């Protein structure tokens, strides 16, 4: 009877050890599988975060480049405007100087006039020619001013067109 009990205790001990080993093996497998799934999830999350960061950096770089282009357009526009205004100022000064010279010549001719009729004719001719010349020069200067405005705003208009083309369309889904 004691040997039966010993055999039974041994049998129960073997069964308990086998069950414990199987449970430990199953627990280890669950832990390893969980760790593998966690590692895969972390790797996938890192990959998505990297792609998102790369996208943000690309957009930021494009914005910086676009801003740089805008500043270059403003600088070119300002330079064109400055040079053009200087040129228009020189032209205007030359016209005023020429009209003044013409007035002085007319004054000399008036002083030398022999009669009142001759003086009146000289003054009428001067007034007519001075008015025609002033209107002609004003039209020429106005046309030059319009050309200058077009040239000075051309870089800015080009940037506005580019901005509309680049940012005016809907984003791709």
From TrEMBL:
Pfam families with a match to the protein in the record: Phasin_2 (PF09361)
Superkingdom as given in the UniProt entry: Bacteria
- Coiled-coil spans in chain: 124-151
Residues in domain Phasin?
65-159
Entries under InterPro entries matching the protein: Phasin, Phasin_subfam-1
Does the record carry Coiled coil as a key word? yes
- Give the keywords, sorted: Coiled coil
Q: Does the UniProt entry include the keyword Coiled coil? A: yes
Q: What is this protein called?
A: TIGR01841 family phasin
Gene symbol here is: phaP
């Amino acid at each position: 009877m004691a040997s039966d009990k010993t055999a039974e205790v041994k049998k129960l001990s073997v069964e308990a050890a086998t069950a414990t080993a199987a449970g430990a093996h199953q627990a280890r497998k669950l832990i390893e599988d969980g760790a593998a799934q966690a590692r895969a999830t972390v790797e996938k999350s890192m990959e998505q975060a990297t792609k998102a960061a790369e996208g943000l950096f690309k957009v930021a770089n494009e914005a910086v480049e676009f801003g740089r282009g805008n500043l270059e357009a403003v600088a070119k526009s300002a330079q064109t405007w400055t040079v053009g205004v200087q040129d228009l100022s020189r032209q205007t000064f030359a016209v005023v100087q020429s009209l003044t010279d013409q007035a002085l010549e007319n004054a000399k001719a008036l002083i030398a006039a022999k009669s009142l009729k001759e003086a009146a004719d000289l003054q009428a001719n001067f007034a007519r020619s001075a008015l025609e010349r002033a209107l002609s020069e004003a039209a020429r200067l106005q046309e030059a001013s319009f050309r200058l405005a077009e040239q000075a705003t051309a870089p800015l208009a080009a940037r506005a067109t580019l901005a509309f083309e680049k940012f005016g369309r809907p984003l791709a889904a």
